[in-house]
Design brief:
about 230 residues; alpha/beta; Rossmann fold; five-stranded parallel beta sheet
């Protein structure tokens, strides 16, 4: 019998690849996405469409409103930076405590499902410098999960937080996904797309994605307003 796993699944490149890895590892996958007040719904709508195609047993969309707090260009009326270096300080696109919040919801669902495994597509190499994408954070959350839940305290099957992409470059992630049959035309990464869902090509997320495809020697199949290479 397959083991159950909750997969944090945004509809983006990384989380879609993470979902494919969980499936390839033999897990029965339960996808969890969030409508958290983000500035657009393109990624979420793709997640809804793609989750059953990639083999999710169930897709749960959790509604929370992080716009109540703001503090990020993704949840407040703050302009998304364009053509800036991802090597700067933590950028304004960081959403305060987002992965902590998302993993907490995933942990709650996992406990109800009787699942001891949670997958998250965080990456600490080709990323924007968010503190909740680091190995130290994942390790700390795993320790907390095994202290805070009845299933872990009373059971003999501790929680494992899987972050299979955390030490991969974006190009390596893309190659891994392609080997597993991921259709990247059904993913979205842009922070500030046009009203009809075309990626800007200039935000940090677009630059990282385009850089990954360029280094992988593969054409990114999605549409962009501009595909200018970033020096």
């Amino acid at each position: 019998m397959s083991k159950k796993a909750v997969v944090l699944y945004s509809g983006g490149l990384d989380s879609t690849t993470c979902m494919a890895i969980a499936r390839a590892d033999g897990f029965e996958t339960y996808a969890m996405s969030f409508a958290y007040g983000q500035r657009h719904s393109v990624e979420l709508e793709l997640a809804k469409a793609y989750a059953p195609k990639i083999g999710a047993v169930k897709h749960q969309v959790v509604e929370i409103d992080l716009r109540q707090f703001g503090g990020s260009a993704l949840t407040a009326e703050i302009e998304v930076p364009k053509d800036q270096s991802s090597d700067d300080d933590i950028p304004i696109t960081y959403v305060p405590a987002r992965n902590t919040i998302f993993l907490s919801f995933a942990l709650g669902w996992a406990e109800v499902l009787g699942a001891a495994d949670i997958f998250v597509g965080v990456n600490a190499l080709d990323y924007s410098g968010y503190p909740d994408c680091r190995p130290e954070f994942i390790s700390a959350f795993e320790n907390m999960a095994n202290l805070a839940t009845r299933a872990a305290v009373e059971g003999d099957n501790p929680y494992t937080i899987h972050s299979p992409l955390i030490q991969l470059s974006k190009a390596e992630i893309i190659r891994t996904g392609l080997d597993l049959g991921v259709d990247y035309s059904l993913t979205h990464s842009c922070y500030d797309p046009t009203p009809d869902g075309i990626s800007c090509g200039r935000c940090d997320s677009c630059h990282l994605r385009l850089k990954g495809f360029r280094e992988a020697g593969i054409e990114d199949p999605i549409r962009y307003v501009t595909r200018n290479a970033k020096d």
